Amino acid sequence: MALFLSQNLSYIWADSDCKFYTSLNLNHYHFESNSILLLLEFIKLMSKKKILYIDLDGVVVDLMLEVERELKADDQNYKGIDELIDNSETVFLNAPPMLHAIEAIEELEKYYDVFILSTAPWGNIHAWSQKRIWVERHLPSLYKKLILTHRKDLLKGDFLIDDRTKNGAAEFSGEHIHIFEPKFPDWDSVLNYLVPKN
C-alpha cells in the first residue's frame, strides 16, 4: 500500500490493485491505474491556495522610521524625504519591520500563496536590490516571490494588503485589504479576517 500526502486531504492511498482512494469527508474517490494524471490534477486542485499579495513599504517595512533616522543623521544634506528616498543607498535596506508584520505573514503563508508586491522609486537604483535583500533577511521563504512593479492592477490574485491606493492598488481585481485604515487598523485585524476559523 502506498501513501500520498496532500495539504488539504487527510490522506490518499493506493491498494494492491492500484485503485486510489482519499479519506476526504469519508467519501471514497476511485481512479483506475491509468488515471494517475487525473489523480495528480485532483490533488493539485484540492491543495490550491488563494493568491495573496502584500505591499512592502509602510505595511511590512517601517520605512518612515528609517527615513526619519537618516534625515536626523543628515550625512548627505538631503532637502527632504523625497530626495532621501531617491538617493539613499541604505534607507530601504536598514528599515526595521513593522510591528507584528513578520509573524502575521508567517501565519498567512500557511493558508495562502503569498507574494511580496512593491514599488521601487525610479530615481534610486539601489532601492531595487535593497528591497530584495531586505526580504531575504526578514522573510527568507519569500525572497524569490518578490514582485516590483508600478502597476499592481496588472497582477491577478485574490487579495492585496496595501496601505495606499496608488500604483494600481485601488484597481486591483481581487480584494484590496486597506491596512491601517478603520476596517483593518493593524495586522491582528487582517489575520482575523483572512485566517480561516476552525
UniProtKB/TrEMBL annotation:
InterPro entries, sorted: 5'(3')-deoxyribonucleotidase, HAD-like_sf, HAD_sf
Superkingdom assignment: Bacteria
A GO term, aspect molecular function: 5'-nucleotidase activity
Family: Belongs to the 5'(3')-deoxyribonucleotidase family.
Protein name stated in the entry: 5'(3')-deoxyribonucleotidase
Single Gene Ontology BP annotation: pyrimidine deoxyribonucleotide catabolic process
Protein source organism: Moheibacter sediminis
The organism's taxonomic lineage, starting at the top: Bacteria, Pseudomonadati, Bacteroidota, Flavobacteriia, Flavobacteriales
